[in-house]
Amino acid sequence: MPRYLVERTFADGLEIPQTTEGVTACLNVVDGNAQHGVTWVHSYVSPDRVRTFCIYDGPSPEAIRSAAGTNGLPIDTITEVSVLDPYFYRAS
Fold first, then answer.
1. 5 - beta bridge partners?
2. pLDDT digit string, tens, across residues 55-65
3. Which end of the chain is more exposed for a tag (fewer CB within 10 A), N or C?
4. The pLDDT of residue 92 is above 70
5. 82 vs 3: CA distance, rounded Å
6. In this prediction, what percent of the chain has a pLDDT beyond 70?
7. 68 in Cβ contact with 74 (< 8 Å)
8. 19-23, Cβ contacts within 8 angstroms, sequence gap of 24 or more
9. β-strands 77-81, 3-9 pairing
10. pTM of the model
11. What tens digit of pLDDT does each residue of 41-56 get?
């Protein structure tokens, strides 16, 4: 399945409390994604919490956009990516 980097901007900052409400919010996103065959792998959040860089597996950019719509999440860009592992390259 293709992997994507999804960039988002949250003008007021992203706030997910470390409480049961935060857990519920994350699980709701996971459930909404599943409706579109999309898996949220993990995310990176900028120090000011305005930008996120999220890794997703999904069948297509359209599926990623549909899942974001279901979850009420913004999308700036979607880029198909692959893993470059520096430890894979070894001298013989």
1. 55, 79
2. 999 999 999 99
3. C
4. no
5. 7
6. 98
7. yes
8. none
9. antiparallel
10. 0.90
11. 999 999 999 999 999 9
C-alpha to C-alpha distances, 39 to 33, 34, 43, 48, nearest whole angstrom: 6, 7, 12, 25
pLDDT band at 87 (very low <50, low <70, confident <90, very high): confident
Q: How far apart are CA 80 and CA 59, in angstroms?
A: 11
Which pair of structure tokens corresponds to residue 24? 């519920």
DSSP secondary structure string, the chain?
--EEEEEEE-TT-----SSHHHHHHHHHHHHHHHTTT-EEEEEEE-TTSSEEEEEEE-S-HHHHHHHHHHHT---SEEEEE----TTT----
Any idea which residue has 């913004």 for tokens?
A: 74
As a whole number of angstroms, the distance between CA 20 and CA 13 comes to 20
What are the tokens at 37? 């065959």
